[in-house]
Amino acid sequence: MDKIFLPHLQKIEPHAQFVFSFPIIESSLGRKYYAKVGSLSEREQFVGEAESLRAIYNAAPGLAPQVFAAVGPDNPATTSERPYFLSEYRNITSLTSNHKAGEELGMRLATELHVYKSTMGFGFHVPTFCGATRQDNGWYQTWEECYSAMIGSLLAMLRDKGSFSELCTKGEQVRSKVIPFLLRPLEIQPVLLHGDLWSGNAGIDSLSDQPVIFDPSSYFGHNEADLAIARIFGGFPHSFFEKYHEYLPKTEPVDQYELRADLYELYHYLNHTVLFGSSYAGSALRKMTILLGACA
Fold this sequence. Notes:
By secondary structure, this protein is an alpha+beta fold. It is 44% helix and 17% strand. The chain is built from nine helices and 14 strands. The protein has helices at residues 2-12, 43-59, 99-111, 143-161, 165-183, 228-233, 238-247, 257-276, 281-294; strands at 18-21, 24-27, 32-37, 67-70, 84-88, 92-93, 122-124, 128-130, 133-135, 138-140, 191-193, 202-205, 211-213, 219-221. A five-stranded antiparallel β-sheet has the order 1-2-3-5-4, with helices on both faces. A hairpin with a 5-residue loop joins β12 and β13 (211-213). α3 runs parallel beside α7 (238-247), α4 packs parallel to α8 and α8 packs antiparallel against α9 (281-294).
């Protein structure tokens, strides 16, 4: 694997020597890098992660690790070249109890990442992966269309499993009734999202003491959708949400904010049902019942 990364490293540090101890590479000048190589079947995952991180770094420099080299979306070597990834190394500690870092993360999301707009519409230019689940992405003119397609893709995966008929039936009702009711009236721009922002994908850089986010599944959508999984699994200090909305107020109509939060959380409950089975199906059904009742 040294041969894959050495040309890229020499461009960054022409006069350095490198010690390879994968996934860490250390240079004689003191810099550290994170490197990995995947199987041929993992190419889309590597591309999706690298393109997501590059977009986040462009929107908010330093908030995510900088990618120095990775297999690209237009690289024709799809069958003969194993996917690779090279980024800066960040030593990351827990964000959970650090209120100052939580505030900083909330501010940076609100003032940098979630104001970085797409000129193409809602969606993303390559597939990305929320956990192991492939998000097809592509581009949509409206947020309603984009989010309905995202939910529809998960419902199709659940139908293929053959044991979630009630969930799929109610899910289609959410697509036909709830999504138009809650999302069609919104006056929003497509902004860059992390896409899988739970506490396991956020932390503090131990050197700078600044927040950092990683393992994204990015797309351009409604900023409030990026807060959903953080609510489900916790791990973010309350100061994160307070500071976020101090800089980026809740979208109008504000009285539907909690219903939109339920709708955005539904995506992750459905995805976890796809990934881990029926233990999450009950939570997804409860969200659907709340949403269908409120939007009847």
